[in-house]
Amino acid sequence: MKARQITKGVYWVGAQDWHRRLFDALIPLPDGTSYNAYLVQGQNQTALIDTVDQSMAGELLAKLEDVSALDYLIANHAEQDHSGLIPALLAKFPQATLLTSAKGKELIREHLDVPELRIRVVSDGDTLALGGKTLEFIYTPWVHWPETMCTYLREDRLLMSCDFFGSHLATSDLYVTDQGRVYEAAKRYYAEIMMPFRTVIQKNLEKLKPYAIERIAPSHGPIYDHPQFIVEAYREWVADTPRNEVVLPYISMHGSTELMAHRLVAALVDRGVRVTPFNLAVTDLGKLAIALVEAATLVLGTPTVNTIPHPNICYATHLVNALRPKLKFAAIIGSYGWNTRVSEQIAGMIPNVKAEVLATVFCRGLPQAATFQELDNLAEKIAGKHRELNLS
Ligand code: FEO
Hints:
Radius of gyration: 24 Å
CATH architecture of the largest domain: 4-Layer Sandwich
CATH class of the largest domain: Alpha Beta
Bound molecules: MU-OXO-diiron
Oligomer: single chain
Strand order of the largest sheet: 1-2-7-8-9-10-11
Shape: elongated
Number of helices: 12
């Protein structure tokens, strides 16, 4: 694949990683991903914005074959999937200077061992004139590392946003052609990567408001030529008010907890509450993360294994705690054989989530009529709380 032109003098020179299925040894990638890098050629000088993952070195280097001189290498983000080729490119272009944020310099020095003399720190709002192409550096911290920034190309109204607005999606489309598909991939990306920094992202979105942006070129997934689509989606995802939705991750060993989960799902639906159950024996955790983006209530369902929660529920609970969704309410349901201490243990695993615990519903062995009544009561309570907040 050759370099692909975006506007005059501006090219996509990234790589598609079609078959990657896991990121950070944690995040499922059902649709692969891409590492986008952008070459900006001014009348006088040339800059490359971000690089690619080291595994894709050949893809980027092939696209730069005809570039005889590179003056600047710009690192919007120090994480290795974008910074991995910095040492190789600084060696290939010995006159190039690496530009990055102050924190970016620190991280790149630590992670990639780049010599200090090759790095120049740019401040928030600094500009770089390449000759008919002016780059402005906009600090956008915590999307999703402390050093992250965007690079804005003024003449072309092009925002190169790195991970911000990205989607893990390998595609031959340079631009978004299927908004539904990209929405799902971008929401998955937001859920897994950005959600813990929701309140900082609110500020970053406000900061970008004054900029005239015709295209957003992220470092993962296709370019947005109708950027309002993804900006509006982000506004909804980071909003403080959740939706009238319940997320119900559960696991069942002999069917009792599953019976309880099914009853609660039915009772919630009957009361006009949207609910998504996730059987953790077969769940794509990315789907669970997506559901957490806008849910108001989390209900965890677990059997008791030797007095403790099932390990799959412990894993999901740790994930929820790490992702810090905007949950308002929580509950725990499940069954046990002879004794249980599950509620206290789960509560201790989730200190980052400041949700009001509405109930715990446990039964010994198979759920009976009294348990089903308790679950109906829980559904009534959840519906009532959602109504009080006027959730839609
Ligand atoms: Fe795509 Fe934070 O790296």
